[in-house]
Each structure stands twice: as structure tokens, then as C-alpha cells.
């Protein structure tokens, strides 16, 4: 009897604990990563240089390359350096911008990438997507997922708390994204992937009800694992669908209209909560807003300095940021006055 199965890509290794980067040298000795040991280390601003110093003794003659920022230009420049150096692999050390730039650069150079995360700001740690800034705004680019992932909790504890909280908002927004995907299935017959949905929902639910804080190793471990699972759900789905719905459309619109307003996860959290308000799902809205508040995340537009008119403009623009994606925003097709009224009602309902 024939056996049918599908092969699921996954990282060679995943380490989430204090002292994880001490194993980096052992990982890179694996011939599946680099046969000759010719490896580059890409570091960003912040803790990148510090970690590069810590891991240098175990990396031999690895070359340290600087990543200026999270722009397409910086990623392309890094990719050119990787090609010129004939490296077999690159280690991206830093936060979300550095890892995304390194992922894109590695794809341009055609070599594997190992992610060493110094904060937990979003699910790009393991996702097949790189979010990069370019002249016209911010875009998402398809890339291979990292070959291996390390999260050292000692460095995460040293990261700005706002960046760690951002990861909470990003993973919570998966719940809204899943509901949008299922809505697309019901209304438009869009195929859904049950395994991807299960992984995405599991990652969000793991964080949703926890009562401990980002000061706890136990919480940070769960958050890191949740973000990695979220990224893998996108690999399985072949798109960002299980982790990006109307919530992310709103955040991308805010980024376009009012750049620098807030970070990715904070805007994703607000977007998810607002989408649940639009769905009139009071139970899930309460769960999401309670979790956001418990961890000191913004809940209403005013919390990140946006007026009602500005947030209304973002919601109106949101569907155009992901053409063809069907979410609660496309389903309701509200006019500008209707959106403004919903935004005002949302603020009254949850702003206290």
C-alpha cells in the first residue's frame, strides 16, 4: 500500500536558553552548514558587536561584516560582500532588521543563513519573509528560512523591553490572521492549510493566557518558541497567510502613511484588536486586549500617537497593501465615514 506524505522544511537545530550561543561553533562544524568552515558573521547595531566578540573564539577566522540598517540597499550590499568572499554560510546576529537583511542577503548570495536573535520583536526569526525598507516604503520579500536558529536569553534580557513586548503583539495577531484566512475560505473558496493554521494558533494561544512577564525566562522561552512556530507556519503555508491578515494590512498602512509611529508588533496588536471589534467578537477582543495591557502594549490608536482621522486613513488604505488578500476589512468594505465611526466606537469600548 503506497504511503503518501509531504516533506516539511525545518531548521537543523533550534536553541532557546541562556548560553545558547556557546554552541554556535559546534553547529558551524556541521558539514551540512559549511564544509570548509568559511563563514561570515553579519552584525547590526546594538548587541551585535558584543555577541560577535563572545562567539569569535569558536568561529576561527570568520569574517565580521556590518549591516547598516534594515533597508534593501543594506541587504543588497551585504549580499555582494558575501558573494565576493565566497562564503559558505552567514550568521545573522541581532534584532529583526539585521536578521531580515541577512536573510535577504543570503538568498542573493545563494548560501544558508543561521539566525542568532538578540531580541524577540517579531516572527521573522524563522519566517520565509524579509521585511525591508526601500525608497517607496516598506516591503516583504520571499526568502529561504534560516538553516538554524539560536536565541540566547541572556541577550534577550538585555534588549530594550519594548522590542520584546513587540513580539507579543505580533504573535497575538496570528489569531486574527487565522480568522481572516478562514473567512477567505468560506467567502471565496480560498484553500487553507490545517497544519499551518494549527501551528499559528498554537503559537498565539501559548502566549495569550500566560500571567508571567518578560522578566521571566519561562515566559521568554515560550515567546521565542511561539515566534519560531509562527514563522514555520508561514513556511508550511508557502505564504504569510497564517500570520498576516487585516491586522498586518493596517500596520503596513500606518507604516506607509505615518512612518516611525511605532514598532511592528505594537501596531499588529492594535490591528488585531480592532479587527476583532469589527467582527463583533467580544470574547476574543477581551482576551487580546487583556493580554496587550498585561504586558504594557498599546491598545488604541492614541496610545501610539495616532488620531482618529489618522487611524481611519490607515484602515482605508490597508486593503491596498496586500492586493488579493481577503480579510474582515475587504469583507465589510466600509466607507470612510463608517470606518471613522467604528474607530470612535472601538476607542470608547476598549480605551478605558
UniProtKB/TrEMBL annotation:
Sorted alphabetically, the keyword list is: Cytoplasm, Lipid biosynthesis, Lipid metabolism, Metal-binding, NAD, NADP, Oxidoreductase, Phospholipid biosynthesis, Phospholipid metabolism, Zinc
**How many and how are cofactors bound here?**
Binds 1 zinc ion per subunit.
Which residues are recorded as binding glycerol? Answer: 123, 170, 248, 264
Q: Which GO terms describe its molecular function?
A: metal ion binding; oxidoreductase activity, acting on CH-OH group of donors
Per its Swiss-Prot or TrEMBL entry, what cofactor is needed? Zn(2+)
User: Its Gene Ontology biological processes?
Assistant: phospholipid biosynthetic process
**Residues that hold NAD(+) according to the record:** 96-100, 118-121, 127
A Pfam family found in this protein is Fe-ADH_2
Supply the name of the protein.
Iron-containing alcohol dehydrogenase family protein
Amino acid at each position: 500500500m503506497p504511503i503518501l506524505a509531504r516533506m516539511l522544511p525545518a531548521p537543523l537545530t533550534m536553541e532557546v536558553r541562556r548560553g545558547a550561543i556557546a554552541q554556535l561553533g559546534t553547529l558551524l562544524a556541521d558539514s551540512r552548514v559549511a564544509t570548509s568552515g568559511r563563514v561570515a558573521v553579519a552584525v547590526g547595531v546594538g548587541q551585535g558587536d558584543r555577541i560577535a566578540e563572545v562567539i569569535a573564539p569558536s568561529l576561527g577566522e570568520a569574517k565580521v561584516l556590518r549591516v547598516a540598517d534594515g533597508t534593501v540597499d543594506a541587504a543588497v550590499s551585504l549580499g555582494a560582500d558575501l558573494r565576493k568572499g565566497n562564503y559558505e554560510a552567514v550568521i545573522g546576529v541581532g534584532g529583526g532588521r539585521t536578521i531580515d537583511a541577512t536573510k535577504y542577503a543570503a538568498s542573493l548570495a545563494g548560501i544558508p543563513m543561521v539566525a542568532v536573535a538578540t531580541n524577540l520583536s517579531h516572527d521573522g526569526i524563522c519566517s520565509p519573509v524579509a521585511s525591508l525598507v526601500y525608497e517607496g516604503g516598506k516591503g516583504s520579500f520571499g526568502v529561504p528560512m534560516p538553516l538554524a536558529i539560536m536565541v540566547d536569553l541572556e541577550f534577550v534580557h538585555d534588549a530594550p523591553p519594548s522590542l520584546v513586548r513587540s513580539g507579543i503583539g505580533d504573535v497575538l495577531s496570528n489569531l486574527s490572521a487565522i480568522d481572516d484566512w478562514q473567512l477567505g475560505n468560506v467567502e471565496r473558496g480560498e484553500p487553507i492549510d490545517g497544519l499551518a493554521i494549527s501551528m499559528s494558533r498554537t503559537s498565539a494561544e501559548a502566549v495569550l493566557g500566560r500571567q508571567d512577564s518578560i522578566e521571566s525566562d519561562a515566559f521568554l522561552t515560550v515567546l521565542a518558541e511561539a515566534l519560531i512556530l509562527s514563522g514555520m507556519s508561514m513556511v508550511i503555508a508557502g505564504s504569510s497567510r497564517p500570520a498576516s491578515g487585516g491586522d498586518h494590512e493596517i500596520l503596513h498602512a500606518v507604516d506607509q502613511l505615518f512612518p516611525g509611529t511605532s514598532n511592528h508588533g505594537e501596531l499588529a496588536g492594535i490591528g488585531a484588536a480592532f479587527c476583532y471589534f469589527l467582527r463583533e467578537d467580544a470574547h476574543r477582543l477581551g482576551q487580546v486586549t487583556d493580554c496587550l495591557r498585561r504586558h504594557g502594549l498599546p491598545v488604541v490608536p492614541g496610545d501610539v500617537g495616532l488620531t482618529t482621522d489618522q487611524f481611519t486613513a490607515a484602515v482605508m488604505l490597508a486593503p491596498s497593501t496586500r492586493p488579493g488578500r481577503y480579510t474582515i476589512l475587504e469583507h465589510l468594505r466600509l466607507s470612510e465615514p463608517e470606518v471613522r465611526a467604528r474607530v470612535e466606537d472601538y476607542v470608547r469600548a476598549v480605551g478605558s
